Amino acid sequence: MATNKNINRIKVVLVEKKKTNKWLADQIGKDQATVSKWCTNTTQPTLETLVETARILEVDIRELLVPTDNQKIMMTIL
């Protein structure tokens, strides 16, 4: 049974940076539909693409990923 979980935060970071799916698609050389699927967590980018996306958006790659439960607990404690 497949569950549709939110794995990445690309859409959130794009909003924070005031950028669009089209802008990211142009920057990374991908189709806008592909980037849209990443933003809706329908599909996921490769690790290499995620690294490139973080570089383009000028964020730490960890900001593009939904934290695990352990990371959430640690962030709450800190």
Automatic annotation (TrEMBL):
Occurrences of domain HTH cro/C1-type (ranges): 24-64
Lineage: superkingdom: Bacteria
Range of residues in the leader sequence: none
Annotated SMART domains: HTH_XRE (SM00530)
GO MF term list: DNA binding
The protein's name in its UniProt record: HTH cro/C1-type domain-containing protein
